[in-house]
Amino acid sequence: MKHERAKTVVAFLLFSLIFSRETLANFFGGISLLLDRPFTTGNYIIPGLG
What sign does the CA torsion over 23, 28, 34, 39 have? Predict the structure, then answer.
């Protein structure tokens, strides 16, 4: 029973670490877009060509 609980705790910690990294990456990516202003009104953005 102790081993199952330890596995659950380890899995939760790994999931939290992965989720927090992705969240932080998205947050700082959004800040970068706000500060750099690479697009202006009227620009067309075509995904997949960069």
Answer: negative
Q: Which pLDDT tens digit goes with each residue over 6-50?
A: 888 888 888 887 778 887 788 889 999 999 988 888 998 888 865
**Phi, psi angles (nearest 5°) of residue 9:** -65, -45
Tokens of 19: 């989720």
Residue 39 gets the label, from left (phi > 0), alpha (psi -120 to 50) or beta, of beta
pTM, whole model, 2 decimals?
0.48
Residue 29: closest CA among 38, 18, 19, 17:
38
